[in-house]
Amino acid sequence: MDLENSQNNMYSFEVSDNRSLVLVVEDSIETGEAISHNLDCIGFNVKLVSSVKAAIEFLTRHSPDIILSDYNLPFKSGLDLFKETRKHPSWSEIPFLFISGDKDEAARDQSLKLGADDFLSKPIVPAELQAIIEGKLIKAKLRQEQEKSRFERFRKRIIHTLSHEFRTPLVSITTGTELLIDEYTALQDEQVKTLLQSILKGGQRLERLVDDFMVMQQIDVGYAEKSYRQFKGIISIRELVEFLEEKFSTDLLLQYPNAEITFNLSESVGSKSLEVFK
Fold first, then answer.
1. Interior CA angle at 170 toward 167 and 172, to 5°?
2. CA–CA gap between residue 73 and residue 49 (Å, rounded)
3. Domain end among 92, 112, 144
4. Contact at 8 Å (CB) between 65 and 18?
5. What is the CA radius of gyration of the chain?
6. Could you list the residue range(s) of the whole structural domain that residue 239 is in?
7. How large a percentage of the chain has pLDDT more than 70?
8. Torsion angle defined by CA atoms of residues 108, 232, 244 and 162, in that order, rounded to the nearest 10 degrees
9. Does position 179 have pLDDT exceeding 70, yes or no?
């Protein structure tokens, strides 16, 4: 009997509930109901599902604060679910706990080596489960606060640096332009060319600074999240080189239109390293 369709399943996630949400993945009705009841009684919001497929479907719509999964599930195992969550950037930071009815030390060791937060054996002691979940949630919240604090310090430092750096190219542009206007008749062709090159470089540098500033603004309002998520996950060396090739080729050709730029990826380096030649 499927837990998702069970009429006795009283522990369905409520969108308006402000309590910490625990996603419980358990194919045994009795065990799933018992765990969910205990968690519900101690103040957690619980969503109970019975398969990896149902868990993935839920994760695509909601973000639980912690995942508690049976190791041995039908069709796909709890380990498969764990690996899937670690591939997905928006799920990878969710604390993940395994539970198992088997005293399988090899499974426990493998899970912990892959980064699982804990591996518990059945029967589950409610007080122990509560303490472990609360501890993992506190740790996750602390990590989020630390990351937020580091980002805020970085953001302030970048804005301060950009504010200072804006002045340097502006001086080149304004000074060079003033000289051309005031001394144009007295300047030699080579001097004019030098001033124009200085103005051009100042403008290009200012353009780069504006781009950097716009990125900071996008990060501030959340528009850069999509790009962050795209490259936070695991990507191949070839994908990375192709991205860098397109990016650097465009930037370099704008500055050095007559340059010949070549990127070569050595097949022998595999997925461990790369070589880029100019």
1. 115
2. 11
3. 144
4. no
5. 28
6. 235-278
7. 70
8. -140
9. yes
Q: What is the DSSP string of 19-88?
A: SPEEEEE-S-HHHHHHHHHHHHHTT-EEEEESSHHHHHHHHTT---SEEEEESS-SSS-HHHHHHHHHHS
pLDDT score for 172: 79
Residue 61: exposure state from Cβ atoms within 10 A (0-12, 13-18, ≥19): exposed
Whether the CB-CB separation of 82 and 116 falls below 8 Å is answered with yes
Domain co-membership, 140 together with 241: no
- pTM assigned to the model: 0.56
- From first CA to last CA, the distance across the chain in angstroms is 62
pLDDT digits over 184-196, tens only? 788 888 888 888 8
- Measured CA to CA in angstroms, residue 191 lies from 21, 196, 197, 202, 265 at distances of 69, 9, 10, 17, 43
- CA-CA distance, 230 to 254, in Å (whole number)? 26
- Position 102, amino acid: D
Q: How far apart are CA 128 and CA 151, in angstroms?
A: 35
The domain total for the chain is 2
Distance of alpha carbon 103 from alpha carbon 122, whole angstroms: 9
Q: Is residue 217 part of a domain?
A: no
Where does a domain end: 129, 144, 159? 144
Write the CATH number for 48: 3.40.50.2300
Looking at residue 167, its pLDDT comes to 73
